Structures are given as structure tokens and as C-alpha cells.
Amino acid sequence: MSSDAGADVDILIVGAGVTGIYQLYLAREAGYSVQLVEQGSGVGGTWYWNRYPGSRYDSESYTYGYFFSEELFKEWEWSEHFAGQPENERYFNRVVDKFDLRRLIRFNTTVTSAVWDETSGTWRVTAQDGYTARARYLVAATGVLSVPFYPNVPGRESFRGEAYHTGLWPDAEVDFTGKRVAVIGTGSSGVQVIPIVAPVASSVTVYQRTPNWVTPLHNRPITPQEQAELKADFEKIRDTVGKSPSGFLHQHSDKSTFEDSPEERQAFYERVWQLGGFGKIISNYRDMTLNPAANAEWSRFVAGKIRAVVKDPATAEKLIPKDHGYAGKRPPYGTGYFEAYNRPNVSLVDLNETPITAVTETGIETAAGLQEFDIIVWATGFDFGTGALRRLGVVGRDGLPLKDYWADGPLTYLGIMTHGFPNFFFPGGPHGAAGNNPRYNGDQSDFVAELLDFAREHGHRVIEAPKALEVEWTAMVNDAAITMSPFNEQSYFFGANIPGKAKAFLLNSLGRPKLLQMMEIAVKSDYAGFFPGPDGAPGPDGAEAQGISK
Ligand code: N01
Fold it and tell me: Tens digit of pLDDT for each residue in 129-182?
């Protein structure tokens, strides 16, 4: 189907990451005219931009990739249980080529504004290079971890050596051999980069403000037998991750911490310790994240593991978190991370003792003096959740900018739509996921695709989330942030890492079952309330029509 009068394309998608590529596939399959615009020169999103050494999945590779094509699942052989960035980027390239999607993608296109035009019922999208397009539907698949954050350190720009942010890593190889390297930040990115750089650099100095609960990823190659089993189990794997609350294959435990004796607990913890990646949360005692005493037990166990690895007791103590229990922030999964601190060329600077005062032309200055470097790695994170959407220049009904509507935090319906911004969708955005992201984001893309099909079939040209449903979902998300979420308010999930950012919860701790249940209610009600009248008047009250209390 070609686009209707007044629009260049039916659907314009922004972002060629895991979500945007899937939405593009769905749109093309459904016969819409569709274009995807991407800021980078290649596909992969996170796996295009985060090409720092050590960058890899911490979801099992085969649960992160797509399930829409059995052929793709069976033909693509991941080399490792947690594949590295180059392989992940190759995978997304393979997907767009296999399904002939590349010709629908316009690269090097940085969207600067997207303005809703009430008269034509279209979005007018403009990019930095002068590109413009009119689209009936706009899908911002811009990701939650896509706007790198640099702290405002005096003199940052004056450094004359090489400086890189993990989230904006160059394509050309960075040679660390024999170099004096500073790594600032000890989140998942810093934890991955440090052990890779340490063996080749002349020195690595880690600037740590807050330690994290790092546990082993337990990555390893996928054996030929495992490859055969993965292929044979396609349907089982697809159905398990499709139904799992977290989107992983890890089994949930139905036991609570103190049902076991201390000895049984120790044995249980040792078994959980051996699980890959997020198994340490999902398959742990079911009360581990929410019962403070249970959380303290597991955290103590992990602290013991850290002390057993790090030879210098003072360094070990600095590496053990004291301000939050396990999963109070998003825990990194590492390979050889704590071991790196046993190397004579790796040192730790505790920024609580000696804060950074400036970056100079030659290095980093703290209260303890200046240390000179050849390379500074900024592993300082992202403007999570709303960062990309608030920078996209989205202006909705009555000229209202999205960044103003969300000034106090995002207001969303299912983390997919926001009232006052018709025909605008952001699967994979804030309030959506809390687990294996591609699975949640895929649910949201499916929801968008089905909603568009319904609108097309029934002749609706304007789709808008009813205000009442947005209020309902946002309140549920915010309540669950207090009652169901393990995350500490200092976590970036509350926007706490960005100076001046409104403190608001940016994830969805209600879990996937709730998300799916709410989607089903909307579908069964024939999307009651989603289709405003021809004059822009709101549709019927969606919450009432869907039987949801306000
Ligand atoms: O970022 P982060 P990240 N002075 O925000 C420190 C995903 N991911 O890029 O904790 C000094 O976690 C900050 O300190 P503090 C994953 O979801 C996945 O590492 O704010 N330090 C912290 O140590 C992950 O959670 C993988 O006190 C400053 C660090 O910088 C998310 O991306 C791999 C500072 C930032 O840590 C983000 O991870 C990588 C300052 N002014 C990333 N400001 C996988 O394994 C900040 N910091 C799949």
C-alpha cells in the first residue's frame, strides 16, 4: 500500500536498533510505505555505538535476537552464550539484509524536529542535513540508553590526549598498548572495558564514585551440541521467553530466603553464583530483591566473593557497595573485573576521598594532585529513558513540546504512547521494560503494529492514547516504583545521574505480565477511546470503556 495523500510515507521510524528494525519489518510486511531514519551510518543501535573493547550482551545471545523468523534463528549461530559487540552488530546487519530492509533505511540522518500538523493529520519530520518527510505515523525507536552523559568536569575539553565515551566509541581501533589509561565510571560499561584494557595498557587508573555489585557473567563458547539443541528447541525457547515475566530463560525460584537453613542457603547461593548473567537475580530466592533482610544475606555472600578475589583488603572494601544492596542499581555482569585490581598496573581512585577537581591538558586532577594520562575513557553512562525522546524536537497537538509535557517525568500509556501526541509511538521507551529489553520492546512493537492495522481496517486516521489511560498507567508505574521495585532512588532509573533532571521512575516494575494484560484489555475493547473524532475531539473515555478504574 502506498502512502495516503499529504504524507510521503505512512510510517516513519527513527532508530535502527533492535526495536526499530523489528518495527520496520512489521510495517513492511503489513504493506505500509515506511522509511527508517538512523543517526549512525550503520544498524544495531546500542550495538553500533557501544563498540568499546569488552562490549557484549549480558542477556543470553539467543534470547536477545529475534524470534519472528524460525529460519533466521536456525541459520544464525551465535559463537558465545553472551556475544560480543562485533558479532551483535553483524547479526543486525544480517537481519536487515536477509529481510531486504536496508533499502528502507536512510543513514546519517539526525532528526532535529517532528511536528504534528493537525490539519493534514501528519508528522512533519526534519533532520540536521535538511531531510524532511511527512508521515502519518511516527515511531521513535530511539532507545533508553542512547544519549551518552559526560559529567560537567572543569577542563574536560582541554585534554590533549585521546578521550572517548563508551557510548560513542569510534569505529577505528583504539590502541591502548603501553598507554596510561584513565577509566571514569564503574557501571556495566566500565566493568567491561577495564579487564580488557588492563593487560595491554602500561597503567589503568579507575576513578570510582560508587562501587557496584559485579558478579561473573560466566560467558563461554556455545558448543556444537548446544548449537544443535538451540535449533531443535526453537519453539520451546521462543515460547519460554515469550511468556517469561523477565523475557529470559532463567527459571524463577519459588523459595524464600529464610525457608532454608544457613547451610542450605549457602549451598543455594553457590549454585546461583554459577548461573549466567541475570540468573543471579531471576533464579535467586524470590524475596531477594524486595525483602531487605534477604537482600542483605545475598549481598553479604557476594561481598565475601569480592574479598576472596581482591588481594588488597583496602581495595576490596572500596569495591564493595555500601550504599545499596544487590540490584538496588542495575548490576553489571563482568569477566575478570575484580581480578584486574590484582594487577600491579591497575589502581583505584575513590572519588569520595579525592574528588575530581579538573581535567587538564595532560590528565586528571583530584584533591590528591594531578595524574597524567594518554587516554581517558568516560564510562559515565547515559541520560536514561527519556533522554533521546526529549531531544527529538517532538511537538504535539496545540504546539506542545514533548520535553515540556514530560518536564516532571514521562507520562505514558504502556510506555508506548502519550496523550496530546497523536499517531506517535515510542516502543522501547520509558515505562516499558524491566528485563530482557528486546522481548518487552517486541511486545510493544507488536501492539503498535496491531493498533495500526485496526485503524487502517476501520478507517481511523488519528490514533491517540486516552488521557485517562495514560494517567492510569503512569500512576501504576509510579506506585510500583515504590512497592515492587528494588531500585534505589540514586539509580539512573530515577534519572538521578543527570543534574537537573526531574526525579521520576523511568522503568516498568509492574512486569511483563501486567504490560501484556493491559495490552489485551485494549485489544479486546477494540481500542476504545483511541480514535478521536474528526474535529480532534477526544474519543470516548478509554479507561471507562476498558473497565479500568481511574
Ligand atoms: O553507565 P552507568 P554504563 N564523576 O550509569 C559514574 C547498559 N549496559 O554505561 O554510580 C565520577 O551504569 C557513575 O558513578 P555513580 C546497562 O543497562 C549494558 O556503565 O553515579 N563518576 C557510574 O559508576 C547499564 O546499566 C551492558 O556514582 C561518575 C558510571 O559513571 C547501562 O547500559 C554493558 C560521574 C556510569 O555508570 C549503563 O551502563 C554496558 C561523575 N561526575 C552498558 N558521573 C551489557 O553488559 C557518573 N559517574 C549488555
Answer: 999 999 999 999 999 999 999 999 999 999 999 999 999 999 999 999 999 999
DSSP code string of 175-220: --TT-EEEEE--SHHHHHHHHHHTTTSSEEEEEESS----EE----
Q: How far is the CA of 485 from the centre of ligand 1 (A)?
A: 19
Spell out the residues 6+ positions from residue 278 whose beta carbon is closer than 8 angstroms to its own. Answer: 58, 59, 246, 248, 250, 333, 436
Determine the distance separating the centroid of ligand 1 and the alpha carbon of 184, expressed in angstroms: 9
Radius of gyration of the chain (CA): 24
CA-CA-CA-CA torsion sign (440, 385, 273, 276)? positive
Cell of 348: 583505584
pLDDT tens for residues 306-336?
Answer: 999 999 999 999 999 999 999 999 999 999 9
Grid coordinates belonging to 272: 546461583
240 C-beta neighbours (distance < 10 Å), count = 16
Distance (Å) from CA 336 to ligand 1 centroid? 18
Claim: this prediction has a pTM higher than 0.70: yes
Give residue ranges with CB within 6 A of ligand 1.
57-58, 145, 151, 166, 184-190, 192, 207, 209-210, 330, 351, 379-382, 492, 497
